[in-house]
Each structure stands twice: as C-alpha cells, then as structure tokens.
Amino acid sequence: MITVVFTGYKGGKLRFVLAEGDPEDGAEISIEGHLELSGGGEPVRGVLGGEPTPPDRVLSELQKADRKIALPDVAEVVDRVLGEKIEVKELCRRCLASDRVTVLKHGYRFGEVEVCGRCAREILEEELRFRVPGFSQTLLEKLERLLHELRDIDRVVEMVDPAFDPAEEEEKTRWEIVEAEDEEEHRLPLTELDIPEELRRVLERMGYQELTPVQTKCVERGLLEGRNLLVVSPTGSGKTLVAELAGLTEVLREGRKMVYLVPLVALANQKHREFMEKYGRPLGIGVRLQVGAARLKEFSGPERGPSPRDADIIVGTYEGFDLLLRTGAVDPDDIGVVVIDEVHTLADERGPRLDGLVCRLKTLTGAQLLGLSATVGNPEELAEYLDAEPIVHNRRPVPLEYHLVINQDRRQKWDRIARLVESEWETEYSTGYRGQTIVFTYSRRNTHRLADLLNERTGLDVAPYHAGLPYDRRRSIERAFERGELAAVVTTAALGAGVDFPASQVIFESLAMGIEWLTPREFQQMAGRAGRPGYHDRGKVVLMVEPGRRYHRSQSETEDKVAFTLLESEPEPVEVEYDDEDEREQVLAHLVSGAAKSPGELERVCDESLGFAGDPMRRVKELREMGFVKGLEPTEKGRVAARYFTGPRTVHELSARAGSDPLRAVASVRPFERFQLSPSIKRAVERVTRMSVPSRLDDALSVIHSERKEVIERLPPKEKQKLVSLMKELDCGCDAFPHCEHVSQRASELALKVRLEGKSVYAIPRILEGRYGITAYPIDIANWLEEVVRLLECAGEIAEEPEMAAAAEALADPWSER
C-alpha cells in the first residue's frame, strides 16, 4: 500500500511524503517532496525524492497513491490543488520526524503534543532510563499497561519518579472532582416544619436552622405525612435526620414506636448512644438497644434500655429486631416508623434475612418505611419493592476528590502513605478541625504492620482498627479519633459499613479485602467516608496502586486494572440472592410471625420479596417432612428454630445427631473457617521451602503437605513439634487430605476442647498456637462460639437432648460449677 501524506504548507510550498505500508499501524516513508504553488494556488514547480520534477508528473505520482491523507492545517490547500476531497487525519508528529507515518486513533499526551502508542512506549522507556536508573523490565511492562489506560506519558513517568511527592503535587494525581451541593438549592427553614415544638427546640439547640437539600426534598415529598421513601444520597448528606424527623414526630404525637435498623452491632451501639444523648434524655423518651443476646460469659451483660413494649425508640440490627417479630415480643400495631439504614445490605449474604423482614413488616404493620443508602444502582426498582417514592440526590455536602497514585512497590507505597497522612494532619480546615485519615488495607495483620510503620515514620498517633480487636479497645480508638487525638486509623473493609469516623482523607493501601477484590459498592461506601460537613471543606480519596499486583493466587485481575474499573464504576443494582436454605428459613419465619396463615397469604408475602424465586408450598412440604410445621401451623420445633435464627436443614441435621459427641456434631455442621498458620511456623516453612506460604490454614496445608516429610524434618525443633502435633490431629486418613472438609472440622474440635478447659476467647488462640502452631483472632473465635452455642441450644431443645444442652452451657460459661 502506498499512502501520500500532506504534512505542511509554508512559504508557498506544499510538503508531502510517500509511505509504504498501513499508516494505521505505521508506514515507512520512502519519498519526500513538495509542490511550489503560485499566488493563485497553481503548482508551478515540483520536487520528488530530492530531484526537480515537473508539477504535472508530481501530481500524477500523487494520484496513483492508494490512500491520500492531509493534516488538518493543510487540508483546505490540498483540496484546491488536487481538486478532490481527501482524508483529514491527525498524525503522530514524532513518527513523521522518524520517517514513519502513523494515524493517531487514540493519542497519548506528551507535553503539548499527542503521539502514537509505539512512540509513547519508546518515550516511556527513554524517560524511565533517565529518571529511574536500573528499572526492571517488569516495571516497564506494568507501566505500559497503565499508560494504555491513562494515555498521558508525563503523568505515568512522574508518578514512579522516586522524588515524586503526591502530598505536594496532588493536582497531578487528581482523577476526578465530585462537586458539592449548589448553595442556591432550596432549603427549608426549621421553623416551617410541621414537627412537635419540643423536637424543634432540641434541634435548634444542636445548631440546626435549615434542612439540607435532600432533607428538603423528603419533606416536600411527604416525609411528615407518613409516606414511604427510599432516600439515596451520599454519606454526610443528612439521611439520618430525615429518619429522625419522621420517627420522633410519630413518637411524640402519636405515641407509636420508631424502629431504627442497621446491619452491624457496632453501628447499632453507635446509633443507640447518639439517640440517647440527642433525644433520650432531652425529650424523656426510652431508647432500647436490640441486638442478639450474647451467650458467652465474657460478653454477656444487662439489657440496655426499656423493654421492647415500653421503648419509644428501638435501635437494633436487622436480626435483633426480627427476633421481636418472630416471638411476638413487640406489637406490630405499636410501630409507627421503621428505618432501614444501609438498605443496600439486601445485596450481601445476609440479604435474604433482611428481605424476609421487610416482607413481614409490610404485611404485619402499617408503619411508614424509610430506606436509606448511599449506593443503589436501581432506585426505581427498590422503591417499588418498598412501596416507596425514590428520592435520589447525587450532590455531596462537601466536594470529593479522587486521586490515583502509581507505586513501584510496597516500600514506595507505604512511604507515600506516610507523607499523605502527615500532610493531611497538618491541614487545618476552616472549621478549625485537623485533617484525619482512614487507611484501608487487605488484612487484619496488615493493619498492625502499617500502623506501626506510620507511627514510626511520622511520629503521629496511628492505630490499627478491625473486628478482631476486643470491644473495649475498638471503643477507645473510636473515641480518640472523634476527639481528634489520632492522625489516622488503619483498618479493613469491615469499617466500610461500620463505625462512622469523621475522616477528611481515605487512602486505599490496597483494593483487595482478603482474597477478593473490592466490589464497586464496597469501594463507593468506603470512599464516601471522606469529608464530613461541619468538619471539613473537602474530602479526599487516594488509590495507592501497584501495577501488576495481586494479593492472592486466585485473583485473575491486577490492582491497576481493578483501580480503573472502580474509578469508572456506577452504583450497582441491589439484588437479593436466595439459596434453598434461605427460602426454607424465611417461609418458616413468615409462618411463625403470623405474617402468613394460609397458602394464599404465604404466596402473597413471598411475592413481596425482592429475591424469593421458589415455590413457597414446596418449601412448606420440606419443612413438614423435617417436623417444623404441621399443615401451615408451626410446631414447637419450628418455633424454636425460628427463634434461634438457624437454617432449618442445618438444625435438623444437628438434632438428628443426638446421642453422638456434641462437639464433633456441631463442628461438622458449623466448622470454624478462619484458622491461620502461626507467623513463626509460616516463616520457618518459607525458609525451608523458599516458597511463599499462605496464612490461611487450609491453603498453607496444601503447600506443606506436598513436601511433607522434607519440610517437617528441616524445621527447627520447636516448630517441628507443633507441626507434627497439628498434622496428627488433622489427618483424617482420607485420600483427599488436606483438601477435605475434615481439616476445618477437626481444627474446630481442638478449639472447642480448649474452651472446655476453662479458657477465654482471648486465651484460645494463644493455646492453639503454643500446641499446634495455628491461631485466629479472638473476636472471630467469639463470633463462631456464639453461633455454636446457639446451634447446640436449638438442637438440644428440639431433640430434647440433654448432652447438647449441657455442651452449649459449658461452652458459654466454662467456669461455672455444674
């Protein structure tokens, strides 16, 4: 293929080149020339390949070309000379200077010009050689992938320059700015609201004078007239006050209850404290905390607040309040307003339980329903499900900046995080508050490592925070952060939907949580924590990306690819996925709560569901065969199962093992799956094998077992003894070991036996580490033991099996005299 390209017109000379090959991929220039034009634009002289050539012959040669292209600034002249329309394209100017012709389809910015992909890669390598001596080929390959996404050579190169400081040059890392609300948006004054006078006075003392735009929209759409609403707006936009206005008006005027539901116990505790301080004491109303009763001796305590029937406000987890409905502990007619905070939780693994609860609320109560969320991709569908009007408000109360920082390795990443934390702490906002940071990382262990490093590098107070810490320690960190005593907390995704820290900056040290990449919803929830109105003038979200990085061998995508996906993602639709056991549990709950008393009613309540897709009567048949219902009437066995929130099939299988060893029975149906190899054994095995050994027990055993004899024999005596003891206890003798289910079951039995020795949940991991070289976080052990005790209590009550009941009692309180 021959292509003629007209490259410029100056001093009466129209310059061109002839190139061989496809200009889309880069054609080599073979001949250069020009036509000299008269004042009237007629060709009067020609040069072709450096030789004077008659203009007619030059034009003849040009007409033979398979393709004719002109740069935009000479297209008009070329049209007149050739007497025909030709292609107008932007070309890579660097290629032209290197005797190549390349059409720019998607250019790469370099300074003030754009170049083609080939030149971009060449420039990138040249710049790296100059800026980063001794760079690796791997780094170059990673940056080429990033360059393809960003299409900005200067931006990519500068990011990996060791001297680049993202805290000082944030305009170069800025990806996007989400603008704040317009000051001109309509805001209702507090004085115009039809609310009880005593509530108005309390709000005025808190500093409220007018509503935010989203609060104003809600009032105008019927919030105070009892209308169901789905409110979708960013974190900090005022959704909680929307709920409080409706709920407290109902409490004070009609004497009916406000129920405020959240997904996590930590959030329930926080909301209970807030409601007590803001409204309980000033208004003289009773606020009850309703979460699952703690069965373990270490965590049991008195109930907080009045009884469910006497409380004016019930703050609880979804399951905690559902228990009241299932057992009749609260009169549905007494409920005036139900607030479902974080309603997008419908999309997670607990979604079927929340979905079932919503269906029962709609059937049993005439309460006003308010759904609150910051991240819903299908608000119209979700609003229809709630019989509500959708209120969608996308503007934030303060602007939010997204930044992307590219790092060569973890060391550079952590150094830069230290600078960002330090810089934010030195920032004082117009409100007088300092900047504070939440750093998200992929594992609990990493929260401690990174917090220690940040403390050392910055000299500031930085604390690790995760669900594995004792409650008192977590509460202490929360209070210190709220008082402005901590520059940063380093945490895991658990905080993404957890306690609301007033942070101005959110840093993603990694985009993974455990072995999974963040979903768009998780990312948006976590990013939304940055910037709180009344505290900060803006929020800042920083993604610290290491191109090519994976955090687990099961991950197919790399961190840089995930980063761009998340930055460009839209809110995900909220959908509920049921499995067979979920459907059985919810059908039983509908029957036990009285939400359905006939086949028709059961069909109707299940039709209200967002995700129930099975045949309700088929599930009734299965429940009947297991003895949970008779006809459509729940049996005592069914009522017990519903009260304990256990899957019917699970508790049926456990109760069927009555007479066998209770510990073995419960470990087989509910094993603990968060055991880890102790750090000392992990390091010892890695030294011997020269391989990276996973922390998770089942993954680690796969590596160890493949070279079992050689590995064990070469270990130091202490680690060798622990590993020998562990393998002896866990080896079930089956062909699939260690890839079988018996590993977690047998390890679970070890933990249960240690508990029965009279050890606390905090001592169990230490003892397991000392004997077998395995460990776990105490709070994970505690949560699992709570479930084990509940299962044994339930199965023991159903099967009338005293040994199971005794085992449950002993595991709950191994210190009592029996």
From TrEMBL:
<feature type="domain" description="Helicase ATP-binding">
    <location>
        <begin position="220"/>
        <end position="394"/>
    </location>
</feature>
<dbReference type="Pfam" id="PF19131">
    <property type="entry name" value="DUF5814"/>
</dbReference>
<dbReference type="InterPro" id="IPR043852">
    <property type="entry name" value="DUF5814"/>
</dbReference>
<dbReference type="GO" id="GO:0016787">
    <property type="term" value="F:hydrolase activity"/>
</dbReference>
<feature type="short sequence motif" description="Q motif">
    <location>
        <begin position="188"/>
        <end position="216"/>
    </location>
</feature>
<dbReference type="InterPro" id="IPR014014">
    <property type="entry name" value="RNA_helicase_DEAD_Q_motif"/>
</dbReference>
<keyword id="KW-0547">Nucleotide-binding</keyword>
<keyword id="KW-0067">ATP-binding</keyword>
<dbReference type="Pfam" id="PF00271">
    <property type="entry name" value="Helicase_C"/>
</dbReference>
<dbReference type="InterPro" id="IPR001650">
    <property type="entry name" value="Helicase_C-like"/>
</dbReference>
<dbReference type="Pfam" id="PF00270">
    <property type="entry name" value="DEAD"/>
</dbReference>
<dbReference type="InterPro" id="IPR014001">
    <property type="entry name" value="Helicase_ATP-bd"/>
</dbReference>
<dbReference type="GO" id="GO:0005524">
    <property type="term" value="F:ATP binding"/>
</dbReference>
<dbReference type="InterPro" id="IPR003593">
    <property type="entry name" value="AAA+_ATPase"/>
</dbReference>
<dbReference type="InterPro" id="IPR027417">
    <property type="entry name" value="P-loop_NTPase"/>
</dbReference>
<protein>
    <submittedName>
        <fullName>DEAD/DEAH box helicase</fullName>
    </submittedName>
</protein>
<dbReference type="InterPro" id="IPR011545">
    <property type="entry name" value="DEAD/DEAH_box_helicase_dom"/>
</dbReference>
<dbReference type="InterPro" id="IPR050474">
    <property type="entry name" value="Hel308_SKI2-like"/>
</dbReference>
<feature type="domain" description="Helicase C-terminal">
    <location>
        <begin position="413"/>
        <end position="582"/>
    </location>
</feature>
<dbReference type="GO" id="GO:0003676">
    <property type="term" value="F:nucleic acid binding"/>
</dbReference>
<feature type="domain" description="DEAD-box RNA helicase Q">
    <location>
        <begin position="188"/>
        <end position="216"/>
    </location>
</feature>
<keyword id="KW-0347">Helicase</keyword>
<dbReference type="GO" id="GO:0140097">
    <property type="term" value="F:catalytic activity, acting on DNA"/>
</dbReference>
<dbReference type="GO" id="GO:0003724">
    <property type="term" value="F:RNA helicase activity"/>
</dbReference>
<keyword id="KW-0378">Hydrolase</keyword>
